[in-house]
């Protein structure tokens, strides 16, 4: 407990010293020398419609509308999306090895954990409120388990 309190007080002192110097804008040259070291890490714990796991009367849906060339709108309807997903990604700015412009690297999640994650059914239909019998849908999805990936998605401008 004492060590935590001491660390907290030390952190406040360092923060107060930094604030006393004030903030100032950086020009492009100074900004190009800034390094985030490990970049930004984003963790997500998504709990989606968890009551529908035990409540069979739950009825939720997500509808995405797309207007065609004929002016009519058709919808992709996902019925009862639900489940839990725990994952993380990293974002960093890196230099290209070929001398090109810097790029944004989105690190793919090394581990993603799914628990009863998915949806009851998905369908394409002209009216998003129409109830479609399950045997006439495009099917459903349920994922349980762990997924591992390596690599990164690289984004840069021309």
Automatic annotation (TrEMBL):
Q: Which domain of life is it from?
A: Bacteria
- The record places domain DUF6160 at 3-56
InterPro entries registered for this protein in UniProt: DUF6160 (IPR046158)
Q: Give the signal sequence positions.
A: 1-20
**Entries under Pfam families matching the protein:** DUF6160 (PF19657)
- Entry keywords, A to Z: Signal
The protein's name in its UniProt record = DUF6160 domain-containing protein
What is the protein's species of origin?
Noviherbaspirillum autotrophicum
Name the lineage: Bacteria, Pseudomonadati, Pseudomonadota, Betaproteobacteria, Burkholderiales
